[in-house]
């Protein structure tokens, strides 16, 4: 296993809260937020966007500062951010970077280390560090919190969780699954002509089936590379673990899934859940707001969530599909300062509570673990997120992510629609990813074909 | 003393000079906007372009990107699908548009109404078309499956099944672009000389013979131009694929423009993407030249 994530940061944070110099911190936040230049945030239209917009509006009201939101689609957000950071002077002052692509902004030297803007800035110890991806050591090319610089502030800690129909579970006397075998058994029990036992995101897109498959892949003990942190990029996706994960994914689709899993993207999966057509799905936590919105959901109060299951003998492995806020180097200093003032305000507890109330999952441990907030029925997803945090796994650390995910989405989709066997798909993925990392100059190799 | 008039040859020379001076700014702008980007694309296609420390680094790779093109599985799939898509959708549109334009050109009452109705789809923005058709073709909640369900047919995943996806996109493209062909052909019909038809009627020519021996030959230049334009546009299809299928399932709806987009933009392989773009541009240029040459030859023969 190449990528290891612990709850270290969060636990350290909890221990440190009493000692945290909050007075200084809040003082800094208020001071910085006082009078700032107008600035622009580029962000994609995610399921959690409404929550983000709500806090931005609140920030503008509280501080009197002006913020422009440049809201784009997922694919566009990557391209617009690239265009902005590569220009002589950027137009986007705060980049909301996705967990699959932020690496190319770090590697490319486009993001300004936070302490180069304000040496006094402190990432609140309560903030999640999201598998330490907010830190970057440009010499070792690793996310080392001890030697790396703080490059960004967490915006959204998206991970997939299992959404299930609690009412149907009760009706059929089912238990929340801990293992994949139990998940399959539940899906079979729930599957009927009127309700799909499980819906999966098997379509080919920018990142559809690949992100959906990763909890299975991780949960069977698979990894793309042998030891990424040690610089060993030997491709291991076509391992027996990888095959077991893909075979299980296909079995689930075949036996209790949507009849056209290969055509289901995130939007269709959410649509099936909120209309009551599906009993289970693994979706990012940010989709929760839609489940409880009577304007959008026919199953208000009937859905519950749990940590993603895993294969017997392995650990769960929800992949991190998170978002980080980074400030580019190529914008004027006063706009960098303005963007950082917002980030500083954003990490405060009150702001994070407002974020939660707006419908987005907060990125502060003390808000996520707040018993009062967690006890509210509409926040019943928070437990699942807290349960998942110690198992979260990064996707990759190298900037070739956009190329790799393109390979993954195509080949996995071909396996889902029956165009390739699972072994052929994984062997092809291994060949193609091997070619990508070899061309990029990493120390690599690959396993024999399955 | 009045000036002596210039000899004719000298006048022509001055005219040419002034014409050249007058056109020069436009030519410069044209060169700047068209030729320079293409020259830049050519230069890019011989390099690997990477970004480090905020600047781009170009590494010369010779013809490596061009050599890799035939091995690119996505490009091969995209090329095959593009040819199929362009031929089927363009021919269907031409046929439909011809019939509709002929019909509208022959009626006197309600002509404006029909014309307005037939051109409506072309006025709808592509993003709206994508949303409308994606909803209509949805497996679980789409109108099309609801409709065929009335006759007892099982629902189909029109955009997610390999055998159906490209055909579904062709249907949307036909719906979207037939008005374009209709407008050009209608303009052609309306400009046909009426005295030929009057003479034919006096000679007792029937409607089918009139269509075969008068209308079709006279319309040939318009048909050729419309076909050429539409074929070139169909070769460049992007928005419908992007909005409806994203190239999937598998590579069932992968098309050339979409492959270029993936390689160049999404995967950020600018050098390789540039080589692929030039390949696509060459194909479209060859197609355009062939279509125009064929049209000109046919016109000369007519």
How would you describe this protein?
The complex is a heterodimer of chains A (450) and B (302). Chain A has helices at residues 8-16, 22-33, 49-63, 74-86, 102-107, 114-117, 166-172, 180-190, 209-219, 240-256, 266-274, 288-291, 333-346, 349-357, 365-368, 371-375, 382-388, 401-416, 422-439; strands spanning 39-44, 67-72, 94-98, 135-136, 149-150, 152-156, 160-165, 225-227, 232-235, 280-284, 303-306, 323-326. Chain A has two domains: 8-158 and 321-380, Periplasmic binding protein-like II (D-Maltodextrin-Binding Protein, domain 2, 3-Layer(aba) Sandwich), CATH 3.40.190; 160-319 and 395-439, Periplasmic binding protein-like II (D-Maltodextrin-Binding Protein, domain 2). Chain A has a five-stranded mixed β-sheet with strand order 2-1-3-12-6. Chain A has a three-stranded antiparallel β-sheet with strand order 10-7-11. Chain A has 19 helices and twelve strands. In chain A, α3 packs across α14 (349-357). The longest helix of chain A has 18 residues, at 422-439. Helix content of chain B is 74%, strand content 4%. Chain B contains twelve helices and two strands. In chain B, α4 packs across α7. Chain A binds chain B through residues 75, 78-79, 82, 85-86, 104, 107-110, 203-206, 258-260, 262-264, 268, 271-272, 275, 277, 329-330, 402-403, 406, 410, 413-414, 416-417, 419, and chain B through 51-54, 56, 74, 138-141, 157, 159-162, 246-251, 262, 265-269.
Do you know the CATH architecture of the largest domain in chain B?
Orthogonal Bundle
The CATH class name of the largest domain in chain A reads: Alpha Beta
Structural class designation of chain B: mainly alpha
The CATH class of the largest domain in chain B, by name, is: Mainly Alpha
What's the total number of strands of chain A? 12
Q: How many separate domains of chain A?
A: 2
Percentage of residues in DSSP E strands of chain A? 5-15%
Strand order of the largest sheet of chain B: 1-2
């Amino acid at each position: 296993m190449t990528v290891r994530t612990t709850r270290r940061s969060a636990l350290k944070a909890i221990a440190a809260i009493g000692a945290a110099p909050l007075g200084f911190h809040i003082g800094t936040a208020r001071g910085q937020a006082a009078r700032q230049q107008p600035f622009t945030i580029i962000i994609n239209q995610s399921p959690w966007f409404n929550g983000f917009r709500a806090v931005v509006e609140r920030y503008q009201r509280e501080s009197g500062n002006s913020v422009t939101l440049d809201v784009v689609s997922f694919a566009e957000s990557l391209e617009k951010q690239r265009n902005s950071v590569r220009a002589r002077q950027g137009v986007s002052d705060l980049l909301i970077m996705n967990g699959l692509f932020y690496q190319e902004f770090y590697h490319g030297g486009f993001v300004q280390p936070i302490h180069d803007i304000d040496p006094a800035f402190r990432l609140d110890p309560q903030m999640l560090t999201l598998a330490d991806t907010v830190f970057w050591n440009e010499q070792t090319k690793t996310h080392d919190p001890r030697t790396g610089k703080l490059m960004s502030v967490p915006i959204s800690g998206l991970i997939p969780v299992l959404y299930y129909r609690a009412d149907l579970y009760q009706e059929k006397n089912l238990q929340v699954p801990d293992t994949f075998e139990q998940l399959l058994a539940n899906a079979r029990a729930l599957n009927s002509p009127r309700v799909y036992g499980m819906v999966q995101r098997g379509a080919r897109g920018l990142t559809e089936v690949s992100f959906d498959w990763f909890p299975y892949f991780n949960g069977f003990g698979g990894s793309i590379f042998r030891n990424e942190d040690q610089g060993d990029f030997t491709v291991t996706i076509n391992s027996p673990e990888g095959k077991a994960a893909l075979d299980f994914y296909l079995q689930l689709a075949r036996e209790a899934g949507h009849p056209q899993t290969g055509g289901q993207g995130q939007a269709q999966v959410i649509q099936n859940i909120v209309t009551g057509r599906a009993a289970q799905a693994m979706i990012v936590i940010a989709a929760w707001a839609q489940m409880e919105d009577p304007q959008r959901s026919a199953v208000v109060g009937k859905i519950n969530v749990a940590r993603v299951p895993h294969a017997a003998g392995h650990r769960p492995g929800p992949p991190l599909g998170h978002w980080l806020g980074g400030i580019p180097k190529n914008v004027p200093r006063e706009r960098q300062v303005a963007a950082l003032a917002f980030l500083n305000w954003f990490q405060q507890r009150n702001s994070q509570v407002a974020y939660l109330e707006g419908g987005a999952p907060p990125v502060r441990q003390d808000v996520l673990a707040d018993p009062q907030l967690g006890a509210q029925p509409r926040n019943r997803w928070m437990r699942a997120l807290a349960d998942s945090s110690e198992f979260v796994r990064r996707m990759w650390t190298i900037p070739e992510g956009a190329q790799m995910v393109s390979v993954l989405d195509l080949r996995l989709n071909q396996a889902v629609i029956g165009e390739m066997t699972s072994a052929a798909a994984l062997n092809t993925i291994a060949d193609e990813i091997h070619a990508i990392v070899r061309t990029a100059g990493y120390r690599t190799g690959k396993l024999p074909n399955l | 003393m009045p000036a002596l008039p210039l000899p004719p040859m000298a006048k022509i020379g001055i005219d040419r000079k002034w014409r050249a001076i007058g056109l020069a700014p436009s030519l410069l702008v044209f060169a700047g906007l068209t030729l320079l980007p293409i020259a830049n694309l050519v230069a890019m296609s011989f390099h690997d372009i990477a970004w480090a420390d905020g600047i781009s680094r170009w590494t010369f790779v010779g013809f490596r990107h061009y050599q890799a093109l035939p091995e690119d599985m996505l490009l091969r799939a995209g090329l095959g699908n593009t040819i199929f898509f362009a031929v089927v959708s363009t021919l269907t549109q031409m046929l439909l548009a011809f019939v509709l334009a002929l019909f509208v050109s022959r009626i006197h009452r309600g002509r404006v109404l029909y014309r307005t109705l037939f051109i409506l789809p072309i006025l709808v923005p592509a993003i709206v078309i994508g949303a409308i058709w994606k909803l209509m073709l949805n497996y679980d909640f789409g109108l099309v499956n609801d409709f065929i369900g009335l006759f007892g047919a099982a629902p189909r995943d029109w955009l997610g099944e390999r055998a159906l996806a490209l055909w579904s996109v062709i249907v949307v493209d036909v719906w979207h672009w037939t008005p374009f062909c209709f407008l050009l052909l209608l303009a052609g019909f309306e400009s046909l000389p009426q005295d030929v038809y009057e003479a034919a009627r006096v000679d007792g020519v029937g409607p089918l013979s009139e269509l075969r021996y008068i209308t079709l030959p006279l319309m040939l230049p318009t048909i050729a131009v419309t076909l050429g334009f539409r074929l070139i546009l169909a070769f460049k299809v992007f928005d419908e694929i992007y909005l409806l299928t994203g190239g999937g399932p598998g590579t069932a709806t992968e098309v050339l423009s979409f492959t270029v987009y993936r390689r160049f933009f999404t995967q950020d392989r600018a050098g390789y993407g540039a080589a692929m773009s030039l390949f696509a541009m060459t194909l479209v240029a060859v197609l355009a030249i062939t279509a125009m040459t064929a049209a000109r030859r046919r016109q000369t023969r007519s």
